[in-house]
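The protein record quoted for completeness.
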Amino acid sequence: MIPALKKYEKRKSKYNLLLKKQQKCIDTISRLRFVVFVLGIIVLVRMYILKKPFLFNSIVLVMLILLFYLAYLHRGIENKKNIWLHYTK
């Protein structure tokens, strides 16, 4: 039978590993959100200069959908991270 302390240490190390993975995922999603925003602005300016209103509107729509989706993923992972932080205390 495994003593309670060893079981606790094993579980805590598992949670810490999960926290590191989730933080890495959060950082990646944050960078993706920034890249989507910057590229979207660059392309929008380019389409505005070229006077392409259909492409301009399409890109605005796609950019907004991507940003909201990435924000949704970011919030979900952040909530999971907060739950794991609660268990590691």
